[in-house]
Amino acid sequence: MKPETRPLDRVNPRVGFDNYAFSSSSSSTQPSPDQAFLGQLVQSNLWHHRLGHPTNFVVSLMLNKAHIHVPKISSPVMCHPCLAGKVSKLPFPQHHHKFTSPFATIHTDLWGPVPCISVDGYRYYTIFIDECIYFCWSFPLVNKSDLFSMFVAFYSFLVTQLILLKLYSLMGGEYTCNCLKQFLLDKGIAHHLSCPHTPEQNGVAERKYKHIMETTSTLLHTAKLPSKFWSYACLTVTYLINRMPTPVLLHKSPFEMLFGSSPELNHLRIFGCACFSLLRHYNHNKLQPKTSKCVFLGYGIKYKGYLCYHVPTL
To answer: Fewer beta carbons within 10 angstroms: which end of the chain, N or C?
Structure first.
């Protein structure tokens, strides 16, 4: 809509008109030198376009600092280009219901393929997190298809502790294969899937995955080890996180919640540090040295001991 104009007898030549909109007249009558036309103030929505589509708050703040006055509008104008270019998901509601018994609900996620194959041949890893005590289990995998057999073994482990009732996962093909569906059905386990392209609905697993990956990268960088040792670093990180107190558990550790006692810390060592393993039982004769410099790569899961890597084979 074109603004109304009216002639002025006198105009201050120092006054600028950048904040006004003018309409051109089709009349052939030329204005005299002492006449000008005043227009309406530029609306805030036009400033919104001029400034590159910032938020209404930023527009208001910039105009106030520049001492530019704009007319007040009764209701905000919806900017369709902003919707097309900036639309995002609404925040997800907080999940307030929490199970009070361990192993009632498990969250899981799978990561990979890793940019480089690990030194022991793995390209993926999966994690399982208990919703009650936040205890985490991580397992490296050679292929995505190995997830089913790994979950069956993990379930067999849980059966010795308590029956698993629910499994939360993403909608990836490794979690929707027929063999896993049939297994969950046979065991009476409810399988909850997140919506497509909505990993936020599997937030427990996503946050744990982020924590594990950031710490894994930190351990490898600190130890100056090649990326192919990521699988050992990942298992070590999981081992340590389970022993760390967390505000979610009122500053108790998942280990303490699961086993009812504080974890032992005296056996912990720095990942990637030098160590000297006893090699006498691996020697072919008594003239060979009884030890050699190795690299500490973590803690044994199936036995009480350390994982060490022989330096000459790096």
So the answer is: N
What's the CA gap between 224 and 232, in Å, rounded? Answer: 14
Non-local (6+) Cβ contacts of 292 within 8 A are 276, 277, 279, 310, 311, 312
pTM: 0.62
Structure tokens belonging to residue 184: 């969950």
The answer to whether 155 and 132 are in contact (CB under 8 A) is: no
To the nearest 10°, the Cα dihedral for 207, 213, 216, 221? -130
Residues paired with residue 166 on neighbouring β-strands, in sequence order: 105, 190
> pLDDT digits over 69-99, tens only?
877 776 767 788 777 777 776 665 665 556 5
In this structure, what DSSP letter does residue 196 have? T
| Residue 217, C-beta contacts closer than 8 angstroms, at least 6 positions apart | none
Residue 215, classed as helix, strand or coil, is: helix
Give the Cα separation of 207 and 226 in Å (integer).
25
- Tokens describing residue 295: 């690299």
Tokens coding 188: 């009476």
